[in-house]
Design a protein that fits this description.
about 450 residues; alpha/beta; six-stranded antiparallel beta sheet; four-stranded parallel beta sheet; about 30% helix
Length: about 450
């Protein structure tokens, strides 16, 4: 088995470039200690003086003595978190989204990673069900924080049944150890009707809340169900009435936690509010948006960003026509703002395209789960006009949709010119009017 970590990138002007470290080199040791994973690497290079043992592609070994000033970075990135590969998921969750995907998607979407090192470095949610005693001791002794954990249920029997893994029942003990060690945890609950809602959800949120300030946030998101569930456990989504009842209880929990901790602590995803037909909560309810990447508070943040730049918008622009693309969950949000923008700005024409998710099924409504195929089929010929693609639809580091098709492919298919918009209300306004607004970005 190969040792060390392979260099994936070297930043221009960095110490790594000056030391002639190159992409493809392999870092074997830091301070004469064998390099097993990214954690070893990050701890080693955090010092101002350290040595690296680097193996060149031809097998030549370089021992490099590094000196860096306070706040100075080495300037290299590695390919993976571990020479031994990622820790994989050992669960068979009743609601697993990976099990509900057809063939032909981006290859990385089929990877069932469950690695605590990715949780630390990238904010990936993990289940803790594959951790050894050595792993747990390492997390607590090195104070590897924060951790992002998919909880789903506090009750050991319910959690084990949901995840089809008896190891999943160890979660309460693991969380208590994290709390004792001062590890910050951001928890996620995928809520499944008649499985972990009701009294099970109540117990889960109460037990997690008792572990504040170790547990800093609890996100509740509804189960995602696609049309590819053949031979899987029959599940259903929440009704409008059930979503409304859940949000009634959510307000009670939030007020109680805020009175005790100064934080609302438990946050419900935007889908619940859309399903219940409710307005999104005030921005203060989301505190510091601790689970924004989990779809919790994105709509409210987007609205607040638009409002912050509203007074800077022009009253007129040269004739400008744009097409806006989104999923069915955001239909009401974008219909409102499309109308308001066209009323305010003379010369602006905005066409809104609400794209159904025929690929995954109509119950999947988030814009981030739309495919290029569905967009192309439902847009038709744009006759050379511009259209806006939200970044959330694309791979993080590449302009590729879930079905492994590119933005360039879509442009050709619909005969239009795409602009990729970051998940930011001000960025959206700037694309709409065609130039930058002189305003500080929303924090």
């Amino acid at each position: 088995m190969s040792k060390g970590l392979v260099v994936a990138a070297v930043h221009s002007g960095s110490i790594a470039e000056e030391m002639e470290i190159e992409v493809g080199d392999r870092v074997l040791e830091v301070n004469e200690e064998e390099l097993n994973d990214l954690i070893d690497f990050q701890f080693g290079i955090s010092e101002e003086d350290f040595t690296l043992l680097v193996e060149k592609p031809d097998g030549e070994l370089w021992e490099l003595e590094i000196e860096k000033g306070p706040g100075e970075f080495l300037g290299l990135e590695v390919e993976t978190v571990s020479a031994k590969g990622l820790k994989k998921c050992c669960n068979n969750c009743t609601f697993c989204f990976v099990a509900q995907m057809p063939k032909g998607m981006r290859p990385s979407l089929y990877d069932k990673d469950d690695d605590y090192r990715l949780s630390l470095t990238q904010g990936s949610f993990i289940t803790l069900s594959n951790l050894s005693e050595e792993d747990l001791s390492r997390i607590t002794s090195l104070h590897l924080t924060p951790m992002y954990v998919s909880v789903h249920a506090w009750n050991p029997d319910v959690r084990s049944k949901l995840m089809k893994n008896p190891q999943a029942g160890k979660l309460p003990e693991q969380f208590r150890r994290f709390a004792e060690a001062g590890i910050v945890v951001h928890a996620q609950i995928v809520l499944v009707p008649e499985h972990n809602d009701g009294e099970v959800l109540k117990e889960t949120i109460e037990r997690l809340g008792e572990l504040y300030p170790s547990v800093q946030s609890i996100a509740v998101v509804p189960v995602g169900l696609t049309r590819y569930r053949e031979k899987l456990t029959p599940l259903r989504g929440f009704t409008n009435e059930e979503a409304d009842q859940i949000l009634d209880q959510a307000e009670i929990w939030q007020k109680d936690f805020f009175s005790r901790t100064g934080r609302h602590l438990v946050y419900f995803s935007d889908e619940f509010y859309v399903l219940a037909g409710r307005e999104f909560p005030a921005i203060s309810v989301y505190d510091d948006f601790p689970q924004l990447e989990n779809g919790v508070g994105m709509a409210r943040k987007f609205i607040s960003e638009i409002e912050s730049g509203w007074d800077l918008l022009p009253k007129e622009v040269p004739e400008r026509s744009l097409h806006i693309i989104t999923g069915t969950a955001a239909q009401g949000l974008f219909e409102t703002w499309r109308k308001r923008l066209m009323e305010r700005i003379k010369g602006l024409s905005l066409t809104l395209h609400i794209v159904r998710n025929d690929f995954f099924g109509l119950t999947v409504t988030a814009a981030g789960l739309l495919t290029a195929q569905d967009i192309a089929q439902q847009l038709g010929d744009l006759q050379g006009e511009k259209f806006l693609i939200p970044r959330t639809m694309l791979k993080a580091d590449e302009d590729i949709f879930l079905d492994d098709l590119s933005v360039e492919w879509l442009e050709k298919k619909v005969n239009g010119k795409a602009s990729i918009v970051e998940n930011d209300g001000l960025a959206f306004l700037e694309h709409v009017i065609g130039y930058s607004l002189e305003v500080e970005r929303f924090e």
